[in-house]
Amino acid sequence: MRRPSARKRWSWRSQAFRGLLWQVVAVLLVGFAVWFLAHNTLENMRARGIQSGFDFLKGPAGFDIGESLIPYDALDPYWKAFLVGILNTLRVAIIGIGVATLFGTLLGIGRFSANAIVRGLCYAYTETFRNVPILLQLLFWYLVFTEVLPPVAEPVSVGPFLLSKAGFSFPWWVEGRWSVPAPGAFSMEGGASATPEFMAVLMGLVFYTSAFIGEIVRAGIAAVPKGQVEAASALGLPRGLQVRKVILPQALRVIIPPLTSQYLNITKNSSLAVAIGYPDVVSIANTSLNNTGRAVECISIIMLVYLVTSLSTALFMNWYNKRVAIQER
Amino acid sequence: MNKTTVSLAIALALAVPFGAHAGKTLDSIKQKGQVACGVHTGLSGFSQADSQGNWDGIDVDYCKALAAAVLGDASKVKYVPLTAAQRFTALQSGEIDILSRNTTWTLTRDASLGLNFIGTVYYDGQGFLVPAKSKVKSAKAMKGATVCVQSGTTTEKNLTDYSRANKLDMKPVVFEKIEAATGAYFSGRCAAFTTDASGLASVRNKEAKNPADHVILPELISKEPLGPAVRRGDDEWFAIAKWVLFGLIEAEEYDITQANVEKLAAESTDPVVMRITGKSEDTGKLLGLDKDWMVKAVKAVGNYGEMFERNVGPKTPLNLPRGLNNQWNKGGLQYAPPIR
Ligand SMILES: N[C@@H](CCC(=O)N[C@@H](CS)C(=O)NCC(=O)O)C(=O)O
């Protein structure tokens, strides 16, 4: 192949130059459009007497939040309220990703079971949960927790574990000793509780997403050539080792890219939690928006939070994908 | 985030900036032939539609009076049902001409949302609804209780203030939709539901399987002056909206009623009544309206007292006492500046 000479490459009419030109024009156009929209929005808001700006983040939020991973008080600033919301979103998303991956993997493997009942059950589960809209599933689980479970005063208990309208309560290490939950006048006292809102969001996300993950795992396993398993059997590897050492490493290559989008979906779907009163970042932003009237700002924060979490999830998964990818020889 | 918010953002981003456009609202209303009025999606006594799409309620009556005063016909109202979260954006974006939807007048809203409150249609306060069987008699007894609230309202902050001030450590469960909030309360997830006392009466009356199973606690924990608001930047329209409300209140003060207004307009020699009915001075002209603007308004919905009794008063299912909403000379707070 003949390489073009350096001089020729940079002439005005060269493809490289034209390519560069178009890139610059495109960047300028996009930049101008963004500037125009932002500037115009601010102008119009000013003309209509709508106040704007992110300064409100430093002022006191003034509202309580039902559950929080960090100490939070209503007099704390708005940014801290947002942080509580972001942590609540991450909490349900991360636990959801963990449990859904475990469930989904079992489901996917179950589809190859020698036992017809196991195969059938896994199939039925997958088809049910991935075909019912997730919002309905969230509402369903919330209904189960709030309507079906007994009131706080008379919980169902398995040892120290209690289920009631106050959620799932369990013993917890509080101030240097184990504290066991017991019904109080209006709520469980002692121990720790996962609220019905949290449980319902978590279960909704896990049941829905694990059905998809199951399919991805099934497809991944199916993509491993039969010969590989046969060869492993011929070598006398036991079934467990075959799965762990031969099938899964090869299947992972196929599994990880679509799995990444499921992880992104879990995080994004967790925003449906507002429907059932879980204080995630969207719920906090809604309240802040209504207390301050800073609609554009609060919505930008929501978008930024989801963008950052999605991008970091994708980056991490890409890195992991590279690591597990089998070097082709 | 909802459709209205998004469309407002788009409108703000694309519209050519222009200054405040005074007087435009009245012109456009006359041209369209109707007043676009933002109301509650369904709050009995305040605004609700029947199966034929006819709206009633005290907030709705104000819109009717306004349409009667401006267009001479109380039926020329376009009702735009709005949720708590949509209401201000609907006004800012110009979708409605007036917001008449149990909305509390607060400094933040008045000063930073690009709107102006015109007065108070109903003086309210925030209360608690609890199941009768819980035997709770006072909000102060609800230490550590979970309380269902709806976001997008003044209620979350009031709840926090009250819980702090009384060291009650109440736990809010915040829902975006009112149905979800009341649903969770009725299912027993929360020990109480909180919003404006008038809203509680309405929810209890409409949503509860048996209204007698729920009680509204005696404590009112906040001031909630509920009133209509207009968009900023049109002082003429602001004045019209204000004076229609004042006129309805003053009509009660001077015993001008739906039944007698035409007769009084024809016969009364009382100078105040003659001014209100436009028989002497032409107050309508100053506002850009017809001379008999108040006659038309009162003819349409009656005076303020009649609006109250018909929609929310003791003879209605809501059974709210007149209390703070009585005339100033009868122990209440309703005091209209004089039409003169
Ligand atoms: N007055 C309070 C509360 C008014 C309010 O929005 N109340 C709730 C409960 S009655 C409501 O209307 N929800 C119905 C909805 O959002 O559609 C305010 O202005 O924020």
Can you walk through the features of this model?
The complex is a heterodimer of chains A (329) and B (340). Chain A has 329 residues and is an alpha+beta fold. Chain A has a domain at 78-131 and 198-324: MetI-like (MetI-like fold, Orthogonal Bundle), CATH 1.10.3720.10. Chain A has helices spanning 6-9, 15-47, 78-110, 116-131, 134-148, 196-222, 226-234, 239-269, 281-292, 295-324, and strands at 156-158, 161-164, 167-170, 172-174, 177-179, 182-183, 188-189, 192-194. In chain A, the strands form 3 sheets. Chain A has a 4-stranded antiparallel beta sheet with strand order 1-2-3-8. In chain A, helix 3 packs across helix 6 (196-222). In chain A, 36% of the residues are buried. The mean pLDDT of chain A is 90. By secondary structure, chain B is of the alpha/beta class. Chain B folds into 2 domains: 3-123 and 225-319, D-Maltodextrin-Binding Protein, domain 2; 126-222, Periplasmic binding protein-like II (D-Maltodextrin-Binding Protein, domain 2, 3-Layer(aba) Sandwich). Chain B is 39% helix and 16% strand. Chain B has 14 helices and 14 strands. Chain B has a 5-stranded mixed beta sheet, with helices on both faces. In chain B, strand 9 (146-150), helix 6 and strand 10 form a beta-alpha-beta unit. In chain B, helix 3 crosses helix 9 (235-253), helix 3 (58-71) runs antiparallel to helix 13 (293-301) and helix 9 (235-253) packs across helix 13 (293-301). Chains A and B meet through helix 2, helix 5, helix 9 and helix 10 of A and helix 1, helix 4, helix 5, helix 6 and strand 10 of B. The structure holds glutathione (GSH). Glutathione binds at residues 40-41, 43, 83-84, 102-104, 150, 153-155, 178, 195-196, 199, 224, 226 of chain B.
